[in-house]
Design a protein that fits this description.
Layout (H helix, E strand, L loop, with lengths): L4 H22 L6 H7 L7 H4 L3 H25 L4 H9 L2 H5 L6 H9 L4 H21 L8 H21 L3 H20 L1 H7 L1
Helix pairs in contact: 1-4, 4-5, 4-8, 7-8, 8-9, 9-10
């Protein structure tokens, strides 16, 4: 039976949303098209009517995941009297560490994305730029300091700490990594001169 254009678009969106979560949970090469389509409640037969290739889907799913992540930062920041602290608290938390399918795509797929095609890597680059922009906006204003460089250091610390905390089976050590990174991120945000002299 032929589906309407509206239904076809709804199906396509469902596949992108499901893939956005499933890729973060299993990796780009850890799940096949059949299971991706099943995750969206559809059969594999309709895949090539919606997407040119698995890379095409991976790129669109990655963009969706990165956009979701930056929206999440913006939402939590807007709802808090201390926006930067709210973002740090959200990101460097045990709760985020456990969000395998809904958490940060940089943590879940970063090293995997580095081995993918340019088509798949571009959404990550765009998403990283958006994360840096948010961090720059949230940092305390300081005359003559390299806020972009500080944001890069902060994002690197945050992504690295959550990645390591997910690897560790020792809960206490895992929490120490999150807490240590949070402290350093706060220090970089508040003391730009220390970062500049150390680089």
């Amino acid at each position: 039976m032929r589906v309407s254009r509206a239904q076809a678009e709804a199906n396509r969106e469902a596949v992108i949303n499901a893939a956005s979560q499933l890729f973060r949970e299993h990796g780009f090469d850890g799940i096949g098209l059949k299971d991706l389509m099943k995750g969206a409640g559809l059969t594999q037969g309709g895949f090539y009517k919606q997407f040119g290739s698995k890379d095409d889907l991976a790129a669109q799913a990655s963009r969706r995941a990165m956009e979701h992540a930056t929206r999440r930062w913006s939402t939590v920041a807007a709802a808090s009297p201390d926006p930067l602290e709210a973002v740090i608290g959200l990101y460097l938390s045990p709760g985020h560490r456990e969000e395998k399918s809904d958490g940060c795509p940089l943590v879940a797929l970063g090293s995997d994305a580095a081995r993918q095609s340019e088509e798949v890597r571009v959404p990550f680059q765009d998403g990283i730029a958006a994360h840096l922009e948010i961090l720059e906006e949230l940092m305390p204003a300081a005359e003559g300091t390299g806020s972009h460089q500080r944001a890069m250091a902060m994002l690197s610390l945050m992504v690295g700490a959550v990645t390591i905390s997910r690897i560790l089976r020792d809960e206490e050590m895992s929490l120490h990594f999150l807490n240590a990174a949070a402290g350093e991120v706060r220090r970089i945000a508040a003391s730009p001169e220390q970062l500049e002299t150390s680089i």
